[in-house]
Structure formats: structure tokens, C-alpha cells
């Protein structure tokens, strides 16, 4: 069988992504053949494409999608043809019309969750879940700082944290993004291109600092984020949209108040199937209850993935973005 997919033969800019016909094997034991209804766009796709996170060449990028099972391998018993499923996991290969997936990395969708919503939320939503519920367990009354608050992960964190009873401070790249973040539960949007976010955080918290910073911007914000924390606070460095974080002298953590530092990844938090199902289950629950709304703010044809990457890296997108086969 054949399918159309984005392929990368050499890492580089968005132009290295080419739309090609590729061969597909029949599903082996433990695999299913999945026809995508929608594919999720994530910043990690940029790291794979650019070579920051090396992948074996050539490869099809993408870690998130949703669709319908078209065929199952021999020993797959808990999924059948026609089931609606979603995923946010390795192996790479989501930027394809049809793909093979290990059955044990798929989650069946509840009736209330449509496939487009699922493809838009699985990766960013399970990330928001583990950040807020496991890495640092946000409590009612906490004031937290999230960078890129109007982005995919950002808008979900704002809504979910507000629901947990937190006050949310969020940095954003433009006044329009500030409005959007505010409408999604961000109490204090800060325009970090023009405002000193450390001074603002200190002002909002009466000089105390926050117990946790969720920092996915990396290079441009990392050191300043440490200055936003109160003693014994937790620095959660979970991404690097602006570039890689420089190596750190751990003495700095002592000097700034016995801080904790963690560099988490969704892959570790969902490596066990039971953890993945628990995380997806909590996500489905907050979405079904209307606590967290999934804003699909951009859609592109899958073959136009290069333009989607340009817009994501150019800070032109907000919320979630879908690639449609
Ligand atoms: P976003 O929608 O948040 O897009 C990235 C945003 O980062 C931009 O919109 C922009 O917002 C901000 N940004 C700040 N500086 C730059 C820069 N120099 N270049 C580009 N963007 C910049 O993406 P996602 O929601 O997909 O991912 C958010 C972050 O979370 C990424 O860093 C990603 O790698 C990380 N992540 C980590 C996971 C983990 O488990 N560790 C899992 C999922 C995501 P603004 O204009 O408002 O500054």
C-alpha cells in the first residue's frame, strides 16, 4: 500500500519538508493501520526538522494525530477496524495520510471528543496535565508564571490552572496575545518584549515571587525565570522555543534560594501505558466538562506543513494548530 507523507531527507529549514508518496507495510503483530483525520502541529516538530533533536534520516516528522483504525495486526485484541483513536507519542511519523502505529500507544476516543479536537489537544493537553498535576502540583491560592501563555500549551495551562484555583501570570509576545490569554484565564498578561517580567512578577506577588515557573521559551527567559521564584520554588524548564538553555552552574540554585530545577518531557511522564491513559483521561474530563476549551486557531493542508512551521517559528500562531490530510 502507498500513502502521501511529508519526508525529511536532511535537517534544516521548513523547505526540507517534501510531500512524497511512500510505501506502507501491512500492520505487523501489535500494530494498527491508522487513517488520520487530523494531525497536530507542535513545537517539538521544529526541533526534529532542524536537527536540534536528531532523528534517523529520512523520516516523517510528527508525534500527534487522531483518526480511524483501518486494519489491525494479528495479536491486537483491544482495537478493531472503525475505532476512533488518538495519540501523542513516538514513533515519529504523524505527518502522513495513513500510518502504522503500535496499538499500545493509542487511546480510544470517548464519543464526546471529535477527532479534530483530539489531534489538537493530545500532546499539549497531556503536557498541561503533567505540568500542573504532577511536576508541580498546583494548589488553590498559588500564583504561577507560565511563559508563551497564548501558545498551544500556554492557553491550556492558563485555563486549567485557573480552574485549580491559581492566579495565573503569563508572558506573551503581543497585545493581541495578551487579550487572548486573558480570555483564557490569565489574570496578569505581561508583554515580555517591552516589559521587565521579573519586576512585574515581583510587583504582582508583593515581592514574594512565585512557587513555580513553567518555562518553555528557554534561552531568552531561563535566567530571569529563576529570579521570579520564591525560596524553594520550582523551575520547570520544559522547552526552548527561543533556543537551547546554556549549561548551568548549580551553585546558582543555592544562591537564588535553594531552588528546584527540573527538565521534564511528556515522553517520560507517559512512557507507561497506565500513566498515558490516566493523563489522557484527566484531559478528556476537563475538556468534556468545558473547563478547558481547545482553540483550533490555525489549520493547514498537511502538504503545506512548511508554511505551518514558518508561522509557528515566526510567533504568528496562537493556541492549537492542525494539519489536515
Ligand atoms: P507554542 O504555540 O507555545 O509556540 C511557541 C511560542 O513560543 C510562540 O508562539 C511564542 O509566543 C513563544 N516564543 C518566545 N520566543 C520565541 C522565539 N524566539 N521563537 C519562536 N517562538 C518564541 O508551541 P507549543 O505549544 O507547541 O509548545 C510550547 C513549548 O512547550 C515549546 O517550547 C515546546 O517544545 C514545549 N513542549 C514541551 C513538552 C515537554 O514535555 N517537555 C511537551 C510539549 C511542548 P510569544 O510570541 O507569545 O512569545
UniProtKB/TrEMBL annotation:
Cited SUPFAM superfamilies: GroES-like, NAD(P)-binding Rossmann-fold domains
GO terms for MF: mRNA 3'-UTR AU-rich region binding; NADPH binding; quinone reductase (NADPH) activity; zinc ion binding
Protein name in the entry: NADPH:quinone reductase and related Zn-dependent oxidoreductase
Pfam families on file: ADH_N, ADH_zinc_N
Parts of the chain that traverse the membrane: none
Domain Enoyl reductase (ER) per the UniProt entry, residue ranges: 12-323
One Gene Ontology cellular component: cytosol
InterPro entries: ADH-like_C, ADH-like_N, ER, GroES-like_sf, NAD(P)-bd_dom_sf, QOR-like, Quin_OxRdtase/zeta-crystal_CS
Keywords in alphabetical order: NADP, Oxidoreductase
UniProt cross-references to CDD domains, sorted A to Z: QOR2
Amino acid at each position: 500500500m502507498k500513502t502521501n507523507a511529508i519526508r525529511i531527507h536532511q535537517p534544516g529549514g521548513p523547505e526540507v519538508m517534501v510531500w512524497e508518496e511512500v510505501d506502507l507495510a501491512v500492520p505487523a503483530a501489535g500494530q494498527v493501520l491508522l487513517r488520520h483525520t487530523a494531525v497536530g502541529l507542535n513545537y517539538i516538530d521544529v526541533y526534529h526538522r532542524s536537527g536540534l533533536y536528531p532523528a534517523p534520516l529520512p523520516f516523517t516528522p510528527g508525534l500527534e494525530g487522531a483518526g480511524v483504525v483501518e486494519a489491525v495486526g494479528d495479536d491486537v485484541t483491544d482495537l478493531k477496524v472503525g475505532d476512533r483513536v488518538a495519540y501523542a507519542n513516538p514513533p515519529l511519523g504523524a505527518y502522513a495520510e495513513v500510518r502504522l502505529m503500535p496499538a499500545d500507544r493509542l487511546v480510544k476516543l470517548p464519543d464526546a471528543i471529535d477527532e479534530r479536537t483530539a489531534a489538537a489537544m493530545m500532546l499539549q493537553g497531556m503536557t498541561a496535565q503533567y505540568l500542573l498535576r504532577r511536576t508541580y502540583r498546583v494548589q488553590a491560592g498559588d500564583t504561577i508564571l507560565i511563559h508563551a501563555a497564548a501558545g498551544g500549551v500556554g492557553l491550556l495551562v492558563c485555563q486549567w490552572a485557573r480552574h485549580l484555583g491559581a492566579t495565573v501570570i503569563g508572558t506573551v509576545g503581543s497585545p493581541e496575545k495578551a487579550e487572548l490569554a486573558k480570555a483564557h484565564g490569565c489574570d496578569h498578561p505581561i508583554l515580555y518584549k517591552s516589559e521587565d517580567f521579573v519586576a512585574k512578577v515581583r510587583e504582582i506577588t508583593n515581592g514574594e515571587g512565585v512557587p513555580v515557573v513553567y518555562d518553555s521559551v528557554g534561552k531568552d527567559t531561563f535566567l530571569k525565570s529563576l529570579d521570579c521564584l520564591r525560596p524553594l520554588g520550582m523551575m520547570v524548564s520544559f522547552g526552548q522555543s527561543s533556543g537551547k538553555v546554556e549549561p548551568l552552574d548549580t551553585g546558582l540554585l543555592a544562591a537564588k534560594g535553594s531552588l528546584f530545577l527540573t527538565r521534564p518531557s511528556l515522553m517520560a511522564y507517559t512512557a507507561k501505558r497506565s500513566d498515558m491513559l490516566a493523563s489522557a483521561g484527566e484531559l478528556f474530563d476537563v475538556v468534556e466538562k468545558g473547563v478547558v476549551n481547545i482553540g483550533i486557531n490555525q489549520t493547514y493542508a498537511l502538504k503545506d506543513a512548511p508554511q505551518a512551521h514558518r508561522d509557528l517559528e515566526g510567533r504568528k500562531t496562537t493556541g492549537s494548530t492542525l494539519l489536515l490530510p
